[in-house]
Write a structure and sequence with these properties.
Shape of chain B: globular
Order of helices and strands of chain B: EEEHHEHEHEHEHEHEHHEH
CATH superfamily of chain B: Dihydropteroate synthase-like
CATH class of chain B: Alpha Beta
CATH topology of chain B: TIM Barrel
Oligomer: heterodimer
Largest sheet of chain A: 8 strands, parallel
Helix content of chain B: 25-40%
Structural class of chain B: alpha/beta
Number of helices of chain A: 17
Number of domains of chain A: 3
Distance between the termini of chain B: 28 Å
Number of domains of chain B: 1
Strand content of chain A: 15-25%
CATH architecture of chain B: Alpha-Beta Barrel
Largest interface: A-B, 52 and 49 residues
Radius of gyration of chain B: 19 Å
Helix content of chain A: 40-55%
Number of helices of chain B: 10
CATH class of the largest domain in chain A: Alpha Beta
Number of strands of chain A: 17
C-alpha cells in the first residue's frame, strides 16, 4: 500500500540539507508521496528506507503481461473491490482448454473456431485470449499437440501438465510466446520455478489453502520469480468466491504482498450452460484469467459480453461521435431518427434500423454518453440541443420531408421541438425493438 | 506465521420478506417463500449468515403473450394461450416455488380488462395453484391504481408481493396492500437515491420497511446490465453498513429484459436461453433475492446454479 508523506518523512534523515532541491525533508517527503520526485534525489537515504519506499511504490496486485506478440494482454494492477469505487481496469483473459487426447484434426477444427471467436458489440471488438493445452497422454503427444496449437493460433498459450519432462521440450518450442505453466504445486514447486525462469514463462501456483499459496508465492519471490498467477483449484462455488474475495482483499486492504498476484480460475463442466454460469461468477469476482472448455459461439459471445459489461468504466459510459449517420442508400426522402450518443442506445437503434431495411438517417445528439431518459432528465437532450444539432448538420437541407422522429420516451418535448426546430415532429416507439414495424408503416 | 484473513464485520442486515401465507397463517398456500435476511455480501458465508436461498419465479401473464419470441412459445406450447394451464404447467411440470403474474390484459392498449375481472382472475389462479404469488400491474399507472387494489382485496390474507409502487404513484397501492396484508414492490429507475427515498416515503405511511422489496430496474446482459449491477452493490454495501432504508431484498425482472435483446431472438435458441441465464447469474452475484424469469431451461439451470452456490 502507498505510504503517506508523513510515513516517508519518518524514513528520511530529517536534516533539511536541501541537496534534493526541496526546502525541507518534509517537503521532499510530500513530493515523494505524490510521486512528484524520485528517491534517488536524496544522497543520505539508507538501504532499509529505500527498500521500503520501493516496495510501497509497487502496485498491490502485480501487473502481468501474458503471451507474446500482438495477442498478448495485461492483467493485474487492480485497485478496487467494487467497480463503482473506480473501475475494474484490465479485462480478464478468457481461454479454452484443449486435451492432447484430441486428434490433430479435432484440435485444428477447434482452433479454427476459437480463432474466429471475435464479436463486435457497441463499437468494441470482443476477443478471446488464450488456448490451454492439457496433458492426458504421453509427453511426446503433449509436445506434438502444443506444437500444433502454437502453429495454428496467435493466442496466448497455457501448458497444463504436471510433468517437467513433457513441459521442457514444449517450452522450448514457445520461446518468444511467454506461455503460462499450470500447475505448480507444493511438491514440484522448485522444479517448475526453474523451468519458468529458464523459459521466461508465467507460473500458476495451485494450492487449496490460502496460507500454503501465500507461502509458496513468497518462496518463489525470494528466488527471484515474480511472474506468478494464483489458483486455489476446484472447490464448491461459495468457497471459490471466498478465496477470490480474499485474494483481492488481502493485497488491497491488508497490504499482503505475497498474495499480490492475479488469479486464474478454471470453470469446466460437461454442460455448457453450467460451465458458463460458473465462469460468470469468476469474471465478476476478480479472476485475472478464466479457462473454460466450451467453444460454441453462443456461450463465448455471452461470456465476452458479460466481461465487457463488468469492465466498462462506470464513470465513462461508452460513447459514439455525435453526428448524422447515413444507414443504407439514403436519399432526400429517408426518415431522420433522433437519438443520443450513448453507444448502447445508438447501436440498439442502429441494429433495428438495419433490420428494418429502410434506409434512414440517425442523428446522434451529444448527450455526453447518457441514454435517452437520463439525458432528458439531466437536460442534455432538450429541444434546443436537438435543434442546434439539426442546424449543425444541415438536416433540413438534406431531406425534403422536414420530419424528425424522436424516441417515444420523450414525446412530451414534441411541441417545443417543433417550435424551435421548425421541423414536424413524429413520435417514434418507446423501445428500439418497435422501429422496424414503425419505419415500414411510416 | 499464520495468514490473517481479511474478514469484514457488517452492522446491518437485509430484512427478511415472507411471500405467501399458509392455512395456519390465514392464507391457502401450501408453502411460503422467504427472501433476504442476510448480513453479509453474496455468498461470503464465512463472515455472516445467508439464511434464504435466492429464488426464481416463473413469469405468467393473464393473457397470451403475443410479443414473446417463438423460442418461448415452443418451450411452453399452447399453454401460453390459457393462463391457468400455463400457471399449472409451471408449478406441476417445472416445479415452480413461486409465480409472478403480470396483469397485462388490463392495459388500455390490450384488452382493457376491468378491475373486477382481474380480481376474479387472481382468485381463480389462487385456487388453481398453491404456490405464493407475485402480482404485477399492467404498467399504466392510472389503470393499475384501479386494478391493483381490487386484486389486493381478492387475495387478502395470502401475503402476496404486489407492485409496482413508484416515486410519484405509491399512495393508492400502499393503502390497499397495507389493509390486505401484502408485501410491496418499490420500483426505482436504476437510481439508489430514488430507491432510498421511495422506501422512506412508503414507510412514512406506516407500512413496515420489512414488507418492501426493491425493484432496482435492471438491464439485460449487454443492455446496461452493469448499471443495475453496480447500483445493487452500492445499495447492498450501504444496507450492510447500517442504512435500514435500503436494507430490502431485490427483485429483478430478468426475463422481460433478456428476451428483448437482439441476441435472444437468434436462430439458435441456446443464445436466448444463455442470455437470460447469464443476466440472472450476474444479478445474483450483485445481491438479487428474487428473479422473475421466462424460459424453463434457463430457470432450471439457474436453480441448479443457486443450489451450487448454497452448497457448503
Amino acid at each position: 500500500m502507498a505510504l503517506s508523506g508523513l510515513d516517508i518523512y519518518k524514513l528520511l534523515a530529517k536534516t533539511n540539507c536541501r541537496e534534493c532541491g526541496f526546502a525541507t525533508c518534509l517537503a521532499f517527503a510530500m513530493a515523494l508521496a505524490k510521486k512528484a520526485a524520485g528517491i534517488e534525489k536524496c544522497p543520505y537515504i539508507n538501504e532499509e528506507a529505500k527498500r521500503m519506499l520501493e516496495a510501497s511504490a509497487q502496485p498491490p496486485i502485480k501487473l502481468l503481461c501474458i503471451g507474446g506478440g500482438e495477442k498478448s494482454f495485461e492483467i493485474g494492477n487492480e485497485s478496487v473491490m467494487f467497480r463503482h469505487e473506480e473501475k475494474f481496469h484490465r479485462p480478464c483473459g478468457i481461454g479454452f482448454i484443449l486435451d492432447d487426447g484430441l486428434s490433430d484434426a479435432q484440435i485444428k477444427e477447434r482452433l479454427r473456431k476459437i480463432n474466429k471467436s471475435r464479436f463486435e458489440r457497441v463499437g468494441q471488438m470482443l476477443e478471446v485470449n488464450l488456448v490451454a493445452v492439457r496433458q492426458n497422454k504421453s509427453g511426446q503427444r503433449f509436445c506434438d499437440a502444443v506444437k500444433l496449437v502454437a502453429e495454428n493460433t496467435d493466442l496466448a498459450l497455457v501448458l497444463m501438465s504436471r510433468d517437467p519432462a513433457a513441459l521442457k521440450p514444449a517450452l522450448e518450442l514457445l520461446k518468444a510466446r511467454r506461455p503460462v505453466i499450470y500447475p505448480a504445486v507444493k511438491d514440484n514447486l522448485q522444479e517448475f520455478a526453474l523451468l519458468a525462469k529458464e523459459y521466461g514463462a508465467i507460473l500458476v501456483i495451485t494450492c487449496p489453502d490460502l496460507e500454503g499459496l501465500s507461502a509458496a508465492a513468497a518462496q518463489l519471490n525470494k528466488e527471484g520469480l515474480s511472474d506468478i498467477l494464483l489458483d486455489t483449484g476446484k472447490k464448491e462455488l461459495s468457497d471459490k468466491i471466498w478465496d477470490l474475495t480474499q485474494l483481492r482483499r488481502l493485497p488491497l486492504k491488508r497490504s499482503n504482498r505475497s498474495l499480490g498476484y492475479p488469479v486464474l480460475a478454471v470453470a469446466e463442466e460437461d454442460d455448457p450452460y453450467e460451465e458458463a454460469l460458473e465462469a460468470v461468477t469468476y469474471i465478476g469476482k476478480y479472476a485475472g484469467i478464466v479457462l473454460i472448455r466450451g467453444i460454441e459461439s453462443w456461450e463465448v459471445l455471452s461470456l465476452l459480453t458479460l466481461r465487457q459489461n463488468i469492465y466498462t468504466d462506470p464513470q465513462k459510459p461508452l460513447q459514439i461521435e455525435p453526428k448524422l449517420y447515413s444507414i443504407g442508400q439514403v436519399d432526400d426522402k429517408s426518415p431522420v431518427l433522433v437519438t443520443t450518443n450513448f453507444s448502447l442506445t445508438y447501436y440498439t437503434v442502429l441494429g433495428e434500423v438495419e433490420a428494418s431495411k429502410v434506409p434512414s438517417y440517425i442523428m446522434s445528439v451529444d448527450t455526453e454518453g447518457m441514454s435517452v431518459l437520463t439525458a432528458w432528465a439531466a437536460e442534455k437532450f432538450t429541444p434546443e440541443k436537438i435543434t442546434a444539432t439539426v442546424n449543425k448538420y444541415g438536416v433540413r437541407q438534406m431531406v425534403r420531408h422536414n420530419r424528425l422522429i424522436i424516441p417515444g420516451y420523450v414525446a412530451v418535448m414534441s411541441g417545443e421541438l417543433e417550435e424551435s426546430s421548425g421541423c414536424k415532429v413524429v413520435v417514434g416507439p418507446k423501445e428500439a425493438a418497435g422501429l422496424p414495424s414503425f419505419l415500414k408503416n411510416l | 506465521m499464520a495468514l490473517q484473513l481479511a474478514t469484514e464485520k457488517w452492522s446491518g442486515e437485509i430484512s427478511e420478506v415472507i411471500i405467501g401465507a399458509t392455512k395456519d397463517e390465514g392464507g391457502s398456500r401450501k408453502s411460503v417463500v422467504r427472501i433476504g435476511g442476510e448480513n453479509t455480501l453474496p455468498f461470503l458465508f464465512n463472515e455472516g449468515k445467508i439464511p434464504n436461498p435466492v429464488c426464481v419465479a416463473f413469469e405468467v401473464w393473464d393473457t397470451a403473450p403475443s410479443d414473446w419470441p417463438e423460442c418461448l412459445w415452443r418451450a411452453f406450447g399452447k399453454s401460453l394461450n390459457d393462463s391457468l394451464s400455463w400457471a399449472k404447467k409451471c408449478v406441476e411440470e417445472y416445479k415452480a416455488k413461486i409465480l409472478c403474474v403480470r396483469l397485462q390484459s388490463a392495459h388500455p392498449d390490450f384488452a382493457d380488462t376491468p378491475p373486477e375481472a382481474c380480481a376474479k382472475f387472481i382468485a381463480g389462479l389462487l385456487n388453481a395453484v398453491d404456490v405464493p404469488l407475485v402480482i404485477i400491474g399492467c404498467g399504466d399507472d392510472a389503470k393499475d391504481n384501479l386494478v391493483l387494489p381490487a386484486v389486493s382485496e381478492a387475495a387478502k390474507g395470502e401475503r402476496c408481493l404486489i407492485g409496482s409502487a413508484v416515486q410519484d404513484n405509491y399512495k393508492t397501492l400502499v393503502a390497499a396492500l397495507s389493509a390486505d396484508g401484502h408485501n410491496i414492490i418499490a420500483e426505482s429507475p436504476i437510481d439508489i437515491n430514488i430507491a432510498k427515498q421511495l422506501n422512506i416515503l412508503i414507510s412514512d405511511t406506516g407500512f413496515a420497511l420489512s414488507r418492501i422489496v426493491i425493484n432496482p430496474t435492471i438491464g439485460a446482459l449487454g443492455y446496461g446490465l452493469e448499471y443495475a449491477y453496480s447500483i445493487m452493490e452500492r445499495a447492498r454495501l450501504a444496507a450492510l453498513s447500517g442504512d435500514k432504508t435500503v436494507a430490502s431484498p431485490f427483485i429483478c425482472f430478468v426475463g422481460q429484459e433478456a428476451w428483448k435483446a437482439k441476441e435472444a431472438k437468434s436462430e439458435d435458441e441456446r443464445q436466448g436461453i444463455i442470455w437470460e441465464m447469464l443476466s440472472a447469474a450476474a444479478l445474483i452475484q450483485a445481491g438479487a433475492g428474487l428473479l422473475v424469469m421466462r424460459h424453463p431451461v434457463a430457470v432450471e439451470k439457474v436453480n441448479k446454479y443457486i443450489e451450487r452456490l448454497f452448497q457448503r
